[in-house]
Input
Amino acid sequence: MAGDAKSEKREIRERVWRLLVERGVARPPFPVQGRIPNFAGAEQAAALLVRSRVFQRAEVVFCNPDSPQRPVREAALHYGKIVVMASPRLRSGFLVLDPSRIPRSAYSEAATIRGAFKYGKQVLDSVPSVDLKVAGSVAVSPDGGRVGKGGGFSDLEFAILKELGAVSDDTPIATTVHDLQIVERVPLEKHDVPVNLVFTPTRVLEVRAPLKRPEGIYWDLLTPQQIEEIPVLKLLSKRRQRP
Output
């Protein structure tokens, strides 16, 4: 069954990536395959998110580091919010950006992954409590199902943050996508993290009956190599082994 879900999600990714290119709404970086795809209208989708009550109330926003969500990260800094980003493949832990410690003229640069390393603070387990998590998506369904680019890192980030107490089952999870990225159905496995708010350039979808979220880190799904390569997992694994 899990194999069927993985296969179906792979087909959804390929279909959406192809559709965005064919319809001329994909934007650099190219190729879009293998990425959280950038899209025409990303700024408008971000603007709808920024105007939402959940964003306005948030003091700490966790946001993925991909191109289409850069307007979200930059806006969060301009609104005086702490921004938390995951480093690529979690190899350097998390990056915490405090806008009060960054020149306002540098917010645009700080919203990039390179700029986040320059202006942010690298942390492993001292992540502030997150009020809103923004995830990048390849595809989403109206009931909150989400497909990422296939590496599983967004789901793992949530599991780690939950283990650290930085997020809970009540933490809002939003995504910004093009309307073409909304699909009828997404199969979910136990480690997959659904979203409950979807912002496109033209509309807002709020999931009325949120899907079940993972309980935390499913250690049985991780290989020793993955644990060894991701410092925060290595740290949490050692804590588990203490008497």
Q: What stands out?
A: The chain has a mean pLDDT of 95.
